[in-house]
Write a structure and sequence with these properties.
By secondary structure, the chain is α+β, with helices and mostly antiparallel strands. It folds into two domains: 3-69; 83-167, no CATH class. Helices cover 42% and strands 30% of the residues. 14% of the residues are buried.
Length: 168
């Protein structure tokens, strides 16, 4: 709940504040009428209005969060946000190509990370494992169009070689 009681010389009342899609939504509910502080049932009415508005904004916030989780964000290099191709330095000093996945999990409600070795699983198998992990934690169905778009966004061997060359 993001209903907060503000008691300052400038304002006395409740503030409802939520963030959605990078924007902050704030509304104020005054607890003053005719220069005097509201008490009793009138104060409770204002508090209920503020809480009702907070519930509405919370619902909209959850909808925006779910919509955002199901959209694919592709950067200028054609990589999916949350699934990166990189070279992982092993303890031996050698570099291994991996897909690194880092997402805010809707399953565990925290940020989760893993890597999938391209050498071990191959390009196609590694991409499949990376997408499956990503979709599991973003709650994206394997029957959805988003899943199919993710699978289709698999980088080509030539693109990965170019990335390897650029990173060397």
């Amino acid at each position: 709940m993001s209903v907060e009681l503000l008691d300052s010389p400038r304002f006395y009342g409740f503030r409802v504040r939520r963030q959605m899609s990078g924007e902050t939504y704030q509304e104020y509910f005054s607890l003053k009428a005719d220069g005097k502080k509201l008490r009793g049932s009138k104060r409770n009415e204002v508090k209920l209005k503020a809480e009702k508005r907070d519930e509405e904004l919370s619902r909209l916030q959850n909808q925006a969060r779910e919509k955002s989780a199901r959209t694919i964000q592709v950067d200028k290099n054609g990589q999916i946000r949350g699934i990166l191709f990189r070279l992982k330095r092993e303890k031996s000093g050698s570099q291994t190509p991996v897909f690194q996945i880092g997402v805010m999990s809707q399953v565990e409600n925290k940020i989760v990370n893993t890597t999938v070795s391209v050498n071990l699983h191959g390009l196609e198998g590694g991409w499949q494992k990376a997408v499956d992990f990503f979709c599991l934690h973003k709650k994206i169905s394997k029957r959805s169009s988003t899943y199919r778009r993710l699978i289709d966004a698999q980088p080509s061997a030539a693109a990965l070689k170019k990335l390897l060359k650029d990173k060397s």
